Amino acid sequence: MEPGALLVFVGLLFFNSESVSSAVCDVNIDPSRVVVRFGDPVTVNCSTTREDVLGAGWESSVSPVNKMNSKIAVWNVSSLTVWDAEPKCFINYMNEPRQCAEKLDLVIYKYPENISLIAPEFMKIGVESTITCQVLDVAPARYLSVKLYKGDEQLVNRSFTHDSTHFPVNESIPFPVTPTRTDNGAEYTCVAELQLGPGGLKPNPEKRSPPLKIPVVYKPSLLSAAEENVEVREGGSIVLKCSADGSPAPTYEWKYPKADNVQEITKDGVSTVNITRASYSNARVYECHAKNTYGVAMKNITLTVKGGTPWIMIILIITGVVIAIAIVVGGIRFCGR
């Protein structure tokens, strides 16, 4: 090959090599993902390694940048108070492609202004109720996770990944709850968490509602057997007890023929019938009714009075003693004569 032809061939190779390298878009954003709280400052660098640069800059609704003859452009905002900033870095080149651009992965977030629970005044055992968590003025919704807790137990978790809204929103999240007897007096709490991902705060920022106790109502149920048989000796004392669990707390009513030696007392959720100097007239069935607004539980206590020494025996004994004394006294008088 002639020397001139060799120079031309080498020149073509160089030209083609330069064209290929210059045809590649090279836009580097650092950091590539930015998570910033609404109102906070933010700074992001954008640069390129290509040499045929005419200028670089940022397109944005806030603090746009345009740098001529520069391979670097810095987007710097002292206080980011625009939700739709959508910054995009662009670089202009002398060769094709003449402009390259890349959008910044920017997440602007805001803690919930307020979070609260809306619940019924009470819930019925075994009946589904709705507890609603209200989250006010939070952004962005797609990173929001709302959880309902009963004590330390997480019941439900709801997320909003489908929501593409950038602006703050209000969310009302209903949670179905079917309470049991043991849930009476349980404490419920709603937790709103922003799961912001890479570049976000760790642990994830969250806000809790004030705890809320919701009464669970149910009819009374006896704490002991519904049927009892008890005994007392005549002239003795005995206490008949009746207690039940219910919400609201049950009241008690006893049914039996009243007597002077019988007294009713209710204390600390237990109702008693106190019988002193028991007689055969006290032997009967005593009915205890524990009731509240939602139902009644009934207990029957059958009392048997066992006899002491029969009266006829007492009379005979006394008579025998009197006769014996009379005989002794009569014998003494006879001897004295």
UniProtKB/TrEMBL annotation:
It is a single-pass type I membrane protein. Residues 220-304 form the Ig-like domain. SUPFAM superfamilies: Immunoglobulin (SSF48726). The chain crosses the membrane at residues 311-332. It comes from Huso huso (Beluga). Belongs to the immunoglobulin superfamily. ICAM family. It is found in: Membrane. This is Vascular cell adhesion protein 1-like isoform X4. Residues 1-22 form the signal peptide. Keywords: Cell adhesion, Disulfide bond, Glycoprotein, Immunoglobulin domain, Membrane, Repeat, Signal, Transmembrane, Transmembrane helix.
